[in-house]
Amino acid sequence: MSRPPFLTLPPCARAHRLSTPRGEFAVHDAQPSSPPRGTVLLVPGFTGSKEDFIALLEPLAAAGYRAVAVDGRGQHESEGPRDEAAYALGELAGDVRAQAEALGGGVHLLGHSLGGLISRAAVLEDASPFRSLTIMSCGPAAICAAQQERTRRLVAALGAYDMGTVWLEMRRADGESAPAAPVPPELDAFLRRRWMGTVPEQLTATGRQLTAEPDRTAELAAVPLPKHVISGAVDYAWPVPSIDAMAKELSAVRTVVEGAEHSPNAERPGPTAEALVRFWDLS
């Protein structure tokens, strides 16, 4: 679960709802002070939200890019139905294309973790709304075996218990397996609020997708878009060597953010933003 380093939007950004033919989506929208050099759509991962990109908004806007981070359907502040079929990969990919078109098309698309799989599916179906694709902290297929088992347990718990009970059990298990530094009270409250605001069927459907996604790297390599693969130096969900191999097969620009793990957007936002801007400037 990504943890944003802070929660206050920078002065260049505002929260609003992006209207599309497929519904409204909660976004954080950062605008540069002069006409933008391009627009970036930021798609979060499993159990995540638009807040995961909050530390990137100001540096991207300062570099001249409009940056729009979105809650997908059923995520945090975007509504979604209580129906697993609504969260099939093709449905979520269709939402991403609709969001890109609502932003005027020609957007630089970035997907983090599960968002990388959703963004890949969006591009494979129709790449026309996009100017480039960045896959962040996401590998070529399903998550690693250990994370598959963990995710299957979560999906089973979601089918048996209410969201509040599952949250408490997750926190207990996390504390036993890897005791972490204390989380500031305001961030702790946000993480729980985000979890409780996410539709359980969204988590169940996307959790299953993470454990079963096939390798579609060869298909993506044939799509004539500039591609960028970026990750931390360590990743618990996909082994970094598998991310390296995927980038090579895609002929993608490859960036490893030293000192970061699964969420370089939150853990090392400065160097992450610099790498993204370098790529987009050339795309």
Could you explain how this protein is built, in words?
With 283 residues, the chain is of the alpha/beta class. It has a single domain (13-281), classed as Rossmann fold (3-Layer(aba) Sandwich), CATH 3.40.50. Helices cover 44% and strands 18% of the residues. It is built from eleven helices and eight strands. The chain has an eight-stranded mixed sheet with strand order 1-2-4-3-5-6-7-8, sandwiched between helices. Helix 2 (89-102) packs across helix 3 (114-125) and helix 4 (145-160) runs antiparallel to helix 7. It is globular. The mean pLDDT is 96.
Give a short synopsis of this structure.
The chain has eleven helices and eight strands. The protein is an alpha/beta fold.
Radius of gyration: 17 Å
Number of individual domains = 1
N-to-C CA distance: 30 Å
Roughly what fraction of the amino acids lie in strands? Answer: 15-25%
Q: Estimate percent helicity.
A: 40-55%
- So what's the CATH class? Alpha Beta
Inertia-based shape: globular
Question: For the report, how would you describe the main beta sheet?
Answer: 8 strands, mixed
- The CATH H-level homologous superfamily: Alpha/Beta hydrolase fold, catalytic domain
Widest β-sheet, arrangement of strands: 1-2-4-3-5-6-7-8
Compute the number of strand runs: 8
Helix-and-strand structural type = alpha/beta
Q: Please state the second-level CATH architecture.
A: 3-Layer(aba) Sandwich
Domain AB hydrolase-1: 40-275
Protein name: Alpha/beta hydrolase
GO molecular function: hydrolase activity
GO cellular component, one term: membrane
